[in-house]
Predict the 3D structure of the following.
Amino acid sequence: MSERRLLILYGSQTGYAKDTAYRIGRQAWRRHFSVSVQSMDQVDKWSIFTTTYPVIFVCSTTGQGEEPDNMKKFWRFILRKTIPYDALSGLNYAVFGLGDSSYQKFNFPAKRLSRRLQQLGGTPIVDRGDGDDQHYLGLDGALDPWLENLWTVLLDQYPLPKPIVPESVAPDPSCDIDYIDEQIDASVGKTELIPGTHLARLVKSDRMTAPDHFQDVHLFEFELDDSTQTPQWSPGDCAVLRPENLDSDVNDFLQQMHWTEHADKLLQIKPHDESIIPKWIPRCTTLRWLFTNYFDIMAVPRRSFFEMLYYFSSSENEKERLHEFTTSEGQDELQTYCMRPRRTIVEVLDDLPCSRVPLEYIFDVFPEIADRSFSISSASAVTPHRVDLTVAIVNYKTLMQKPRVGVCTKWLLNMELGRTVGLRFAKGTMKLPAGPTPIIMVGPGTGIAAFMAFIDDRVSRNISANYLFFGCRNEHGDFLHQEQLQKWVSCDKLQLFCAFSRDQENTIYVQQRVREQGDLLWSLISEQDAIVYVSGNANRMPDDVRQAFTDVIADHGVDDAAAYVQAMVKTGRYQEECWY
């Protein structure tokens, strides 16, 4: 019989797929498999052709059906046309995707990956699983039954050598962590920059919306450090920031965990597997540094957090409650307690005073702070050393009535001018044409962010076939980038159509403006091969705008207008970048 090994590979953008992969790894450990969990881009790609034990792939979806960043290299590798059609004939695999069925390209990375593995001769252990955020139990609604089926099939192929390790037994920690003597090498505590990171200094932080407007939208301008090579980003690209927890939040958390006394004492981290902890994390550091820069204490905890916390509670009542949150039957209650009110880790620990995490388990319990991506509102062709970000400040109330403030936007709002931070660039999903092809942009609210870079770049090349449909509530409340847009209009570089939804008795949205300009738009699309871009909130707007374009095309004599729009999507002439 083959050795009892499993390789679990994940592609994760915000941490959910990674969390799921490690959860599967813990279940495999209980079933006496030797387990390795890595991101797809970490693994030796060539080894996949000679692997003799099962491989489980877990991947999320980002953007408009795109692969997560830490899966892209692996995905490009297995797409190579030179790979023989039977290269994976010895591979047994399973694929689970994490997505949201309200998006058109639901779980596309998982579907494409599964299809490609099968094309290359791989044998699926079970059918692909499709986790759906829209399920009333969230992603676990599909994951739990899929895992039950997976273990049934695997244990039939690899019978248990001894009983399953009970759920009451805690898994081993992934690291050894010890306090150390302060008299150590001066290099201790220094952190490496994540590859591709550029230093940037905050030079402007201005509110763009009126003081009495309900939504705070800020313009943040960063100036790139001249000492590093000036990067070239394209219109439509994103700036990636890794936020920090505020000092006040970290101090409260450390006190809550009874760690204040040791917060600034040096500790040494020795991971049992180097792939567990990113290389940029110093192996000698402090608790304060880790909970400021790496661990997300303001996150809404996932099921795995409660699963691990259960082992460290000294209260039977708390243990019973925690255990219920980890069962399939308790997921509805977990949704009610945690997910719907967006209760944070700090607030959960306040509710559970007898549940505290041992030092050596912090990397197994607390999630890492996820990178945040923002569309860049400036063009490198015009301001090569300046990066502008148009950011809606996340601030809302839930059933708990306590304001929920986004970790990244809170960090940005509290950042002092002159502060230097690390900034990376990532490719966006919308691409500008190289030549003077007309572009039609629909960007209500902060959906205008990327289009500011589009127009800026094209105006610098003396291209004036730019058509923008912008929507907001009030002309005098949230007309973002009004001054610059009107400058472009006045010099005939932009045609601007605005929908101020609350400035008249009847609400008006961008899709109505699209219909009103039907003759112009059809002329641009049918005679000049114009490209349509749609960016903004993904709730109803993208579907409503697409329907408006479909109606415009139908009104001009096209029998199957929906198919016409779909053909535009396939050829890149209708592009969407929308988010929740």
The chain has 18 helices and 22 strands. The chain has a mean pLDDT of 92. The first strand starts at residue 5 and ends at 11. The radius of gyration is 26 Å.
